[in-house]
Structure formats: structure tokens, C-alpha cells
Write a structure and sequence with these properties.
Number of helices: 15
Number of strands: 0
CATH architecture: Up-down Bundle
CATH superfamily: MFS general substrate transporter like domains
Order of helices and strands: HHHHHHHHHHHHHHH
Amino acid sequence: MQDISFRHSDWFLPHMEQTSSPVADDTKYRRELLQPGFLALLATQFFTAFNDNLFRWLVVPIGQNFLGDSAALAWGAVLFTLPYLIFAPAAGFLADRFSKRSVIIACKLAEIFVMSLGVFAIWHGNVYLLLFLVFCMGTQSALFSPAKIGAIPELLSLKALSEGNGLMAMITIAACALGTFAGLKIYDLTYDEAGLLTNLIPIAASLLGIAVIGWIVSFFVKTQPAADVNRKLLLNPIEELRPSLKQLFRDPPLARAALGIAAFYFLAILYQVNIDAFGEHTLHMNKGQIAFLMPMLVLGIGVGSVLAGWISGGMIQLGMVPIGAMGIAFTTMVLGLIGWNVDASSTETINTGYYSTAVWLFLLGTIGSFFYIPLESFLQHRSPHAIRGTILSAANALTNSFMLLAMGMFFVLRENAGLSPAWVFMIAGLLALPIIVISFALYFCDFLRFLQ
């Protein structure tokens, strides 16, 4: 990695690095997106994200029967997210010390074991074991993440990177949407109104079947050899994480991208858990109806990710970041206004609110991708190959720290302050306003180039 001196002033200068150089041939690089190794990576990620969300959103309503609505939502998100912070150094070590293909295959094998225990815990009705297994699934995903993300620039050239990340985001988000829908619907089909299990077969078939298919597909992923076979693992995660973060923040443009991605996920996780509360307490929907509402945000992110990658045209367009920030703030506050206008005694306003919420959640996800995709592509491209796993794991740790803060904020706003889900959306929109100012300050020159 080139030596980049740290200067505080670097953080406040507009981004001037040329990331949008013309592309001579705008079609050849797209052929890379169809190579078998990259398609296998996309498929592996699809099955991983699908099963993660299916299991998590199957466990959440089970937990709500015992812990209450907000507590189950918060604990489900915290236990799944916490491993990304605790095991970020180990994940970076694995992604650098071994080939990313080997790490991916091993993680998929671990998923089969965790899902087997999950079926056992559901059969015996052990909620606390289920919550522990949510933590285990989070651990598996945390170890999987740097290898998955780091494999993309090993498989694709710079010209194909933005569209490749757009496809990866689309696949991930589609899997999250379908997995969330499947988890809530399977719960609706296999549990009665009293919260008692009536049929285990659909649960076992889906959790174990998807895990096994994903493991088989992972063998077709092809990546480069290990980046640093001599790297040593420090047993103390703090000792390992500190130099990783120091390495990240030594390069201000990299750190800015990582902080932007963390801010995006802070808002995204806040939206996700609030949708469930919004559907139940504002729109007065049951779990089956909420199952159709939940995927709209993530479907929007999927469509927006492909659109952002296509608009980038083989370049990393940081000028799209301010546009995404403005869109996030506007659409989020609209959702708050929709909630305030719902009258619980009027079926007409409830139905109108339901369909309006679905549309605006989709738009929120779509425009939000204009913020996320350029930053993710820039982070991958600028990270040196030899320490890419380290940089990405540090960025993941930062992201998941923000996600934990978001869950704490959600719990405080709902349980301590007693605010409605509509107010949570409005506050989230207001929090996005400073992000608009910062994104224009940092990427104003890129924004002007993008508009040309």
C-alpha cells in the first residue's frame, strides 16, 4: 500500500480523485459479469442472504410471543449484528490468509450445522437457543462477508466493478426481501394464533435445503490465491481491530467511504425494524400482511443498485452520493407524514396508507442505492489487494457499530420515549439532512462531473 500521510484537512477537501475516466468500449467489460466464477458468487450470496433472513424473521415472531414486540425486534437485530463487530478482525484475517473461495466454502458448511440446530431448537420451542443461533448465523455471515466482498475485485476489472457491485447488491437485497417474506409467511403457516408450532416440515425443508444448495454452489466460485499466507491471527480481537481501523483511517478517502457506508446501514437497519412496528401499530396489519410490506424497501435497493451500476457506465460515480442522500431524507420524511395521516378508525385511510407506504419504501430503497453503490465500489477499488480483507473487515466493524447504535436508538425511541413508528421515520429523515451537507462538501466536484 502506498504511504499516505494523514492530514486533518484531507477530510474536509472535496474529493478530487479521477474516478470517472471515459470508457473506450462500453460493452466488452460487461462480459465479465457473465463469467461462471462471478455468477457462482452471486448465487452463493443469494442463498446465504435468503437463509439468513428467513431464519431471523422466523425467529423474531417466535420471540415476540415471549419477549414482546420491540424487545424481540431489537434483540434479533443486535444478536445478528454483534458478531460483525466482534469477529471483524478474524474475518479479515481469514480473507487475507486463505483464498476467499476456501473461506466461502467453509462458511457455507458451517451454515448447514447451524440450521440443523435451528430446526432442533424450533421443534423443542427453546427461544433462548434460537436467539443464540441467530448470533451464530451472524457469526457465519460476518466471517463470510470480507471474503465475498473481496472476491468481487478479484473477479472483475475496474470498468465492471460498479455494475458488478450493483448486481451483488440486487441479488443480496432480492434475497433479503424474499427471505424476510418467506420467514414471516412460514411462521404464519406453521404456527397457530396461540403461538404453538403445528408443522415442522416446511421449516426444516426450507432452512436445511437452502443451506445445502448454497454450499454446493459455493464450490463453483473461483478466486485468486491467498493474499498473505504469512499473516498471523491475534487472539485479542481489540488488538487485531485497532491496527485494521488505523490502516483504514490512514487513507482519508477510504475512511470517508467507509463512514458513508456505515451511515447508510445505520438508517437501513432502523428502517427495517421500524417497518414491522409501522405495519402493526400504525397500519394495523397482521404478520401475513406485513410480509408483503417488508420486502418493498429491499426490493427498491435491489432495483436501485442495478440502476446505479448501469448509470455509472463502467466508472465509479461518486457524484451520485449527494443525490442519494437527498433522496433518502425526502422519502423517509414522506413515510413519517403518511403515518401521521392514517386514521385507525378509517379503513380507507389505512388502505391508502398501506399502498402509499409500499410505494415510498420502494422509492426510498431505489434512491438510497445511489448513495451506497458508488461508495462500496470506491472502497473495494482503492483497497490494496494485499490488505483488502483487513480494510473491508475494518469497514464492516464500523458499519456494524453504527447498526448497533441504530438498534439502541430504535429501542429508546419506541420503549423509553414512547414515540410512534411514524415519528421514528421522521427523525431518521432529519438525521439524513447533515449527511446531505457532508456529501456535497466532500463530493461536490464529482457531483458537477456527474451532471455533465
